[in-house]
Amino acid sequence: MSPVDKGFLAALLHSDSALPSGSFAFSWGLEQLYQDEVLGDDPLEDVLAWYLTGRWAGFDRYFVQRSFVAATQEERVGVDRYCTAATVSAVVRETSTRAGRTFLRPWSRMRFPATEDFAARVQDGRADGHLAVVQGLVFRECGMDEASACAVSGWSSASSLASAAVRLGKVGALAAQKALVGTVDVLEDLLRTPVPNAPTSWSVIHDLAMERHALRDSRLFAS
């Protein structure tokens, strides 16, 4: 039997829904899209595929990969600031940094040197701490390879949305798991495509939903 490497075990760890990532607080516009009946009766599997294809593959994955391969912390901070500049919606920027800082907090306390350093830069305002950038850093620190880091990021996005759909009462737990299983082929195909040379996103409806969601007085999720 071949030995299991550290990167594979790290990927398993970060794919565990019990990990304190803070993702339970964010629906990434899904709550508002259901509220506005934009999704109608669309199967959850199609919703996940739409998000991964329109947003994650060309935008989030780009910043995960760029952060992962950054040769220096200064270069990673530059990637982080580029993410701020490339995110047009103020609400999406705020949500991305809130989620990133929430994810960063426990890992910076586990004494990973680069993670501690980046957390200090976020704390004093030298970096913003976008989720995709933090993922690239943490996944590298934990021993993943680049391909695994991108795969876990994509799976985490899909899993977070599926969990939100369950909490919103739109699907049951079994239906959510079935949708995630159906998303594997989509994610595999996306991971086979090259990471774009520049961040691209076709998620205007998603961005507008997050803007509208921020104006609601009563809501279950922070985004």
In words, what does this structure look like?
- The protein is an all-alpha fold.
- Helix content is 66%, strand content 0%.
- It contains 10 helices and no strands.
- It has helices spanning 6-14, 30-35, 44-69, 73-86, 90-108, 113-123, 131-141, 146-167, 173-192, 204-213.
- The longest helix has 26 residues, at 44-69.
- The protein is globular.
- The mean pLDDT is 85.
Instruction: Give the total of beta strands.
Output: 0
Label the overall shape.
globular
What percent of residues adopt helix (DSSP H or I)? 55-70%
Q: What structural class results from the helix and strand content?
A: mainly alpha
| Average pLDDT | 85
Low-confidence stretches: none
User: Ends: how far apart?
Assistant: 45 Å
